Please model this.
Amino acid sequence: MERHESRVRSYARSFPDVFTSAKNEVLRSADGTEYLDFLAGAGTLNYGHNPEPVKQLLIDYLQNDGLTHGLDLVTAAKADFLDAFSRYVLAPRGLDHRVQFASPSGTNAVEAALKLARLTTGRAPVVAFGGGFHGVSTGALAATGSAHYKQGLYGTLPTTVHLPYPDSPLGAFDSLDLLRRLVEDPSAGIEKPAAVLVETVQGEGGVYVASDAFLRGLREFCDRHGILLIVDDIQAGCGRTGAFFSFERAGIVPDLVTLSKAIGGYGLPMAVVLIKPEHDIWLPGQHNGTFRGNQLAFVAAAAVLRHYWADGTEGAFVRDVRAKGAAAREHLAPLAARHGIAVRGLGLMLGLDFTRAAAGVTAAEVSRACFEEGLIVETCGRADEVLKLLPPLTVTDENLRRGLDTVVRVVDRLAARDAEAVTA
Ligand code: PLP
Model:
């Protein structure tokens, strides 16, 4: 791999093994080692690896020579997905957004949403937040915060104004007040923005959660000024935070929503923008792409919607996600108290922040040691200071406990090592 694959590879460096098969929350490597997967495709495998309710449907679809590629032609698979999405996701939440299929990565959905906001308002600047991650293609990269992805490219990126997120390593901040001063003061020095792009829970930035009050305030502010509110729900959506959309808890309706990762149901590539009808001003084909019609993803996506989401906004699946999230926090609370670790998050999107960990243990070494003990869990944050737990939402209670026990054991062991070193 070192010889043939580009230096740009990333997860492969953190989790160096050769993986051969996977089921639900368990990954297997070539030598038979089993890992619990609390990375889950960086939030893509919300229903686990190879979920049974979908697998046979995909096999049948292939067996019957269903289309696999369809540009944006009307196909039975796409029509079925749109029917299921409208029936089980949009309608129960009182949403009438249209669905735009983008090229199948999150960054392209963000790209489309930003373009559309600029087209519909006739203005160029976009407001995004420090710590936000929205992808790495040019338009989305401009909105991403991290210097790691932007180094050497700043001068090539479209106009974006970054505000501090309401919570960050530097503490709480009144982002709305700053936004108000920038937009309402004609001498503030910026053009009125086309849109505000926000993650309601920052995934890559360190699992910071925006409050309901902030989200409601942002919605009201955008309404007052004719600015579009775009929620990037690529990582936090599809049930991750304990509701289908991560913004439901605030009772707001964004103008545009981006979804990718778990929407494809089976880890299959798919990305969409949800558009309030009045903003759907695209010319036919204006934002196109060869791979906007991944038919297998449509089949899988429709199947998981029917299986997990057919019983309303407060159905069994989201109640289970919330219960598991609460159980995980309870499980980790004594460890956090012992070592001065901050626990943040919502549902099954949890972060352990080691910035002030008493024993000098770092999230990066915890991630490495967990891997050696059969748990795959990644880091995030400005300097990899946060351990991010993203198990499949379908993880069994037993394997959730086992994974968390591994984290507890590893942190305690590393802390004891550091304490011994200090004593010596
Ligand atoms: N937006 C958010 C919130 C994300 O977490 C990600 C990926 O992690 C993206 C956008 C970009 O998605 P992709 O990597 O599929 O381009």
User: Anything to note?
Assistant: The pocket of pyridoxal-5'-phosphate is lined by residues 42, 105-107, 110, 133-135, 199, 203-204, 232, 234-235, 260 (CB under 6 Å). The chain has a mean pLDDT of 97.
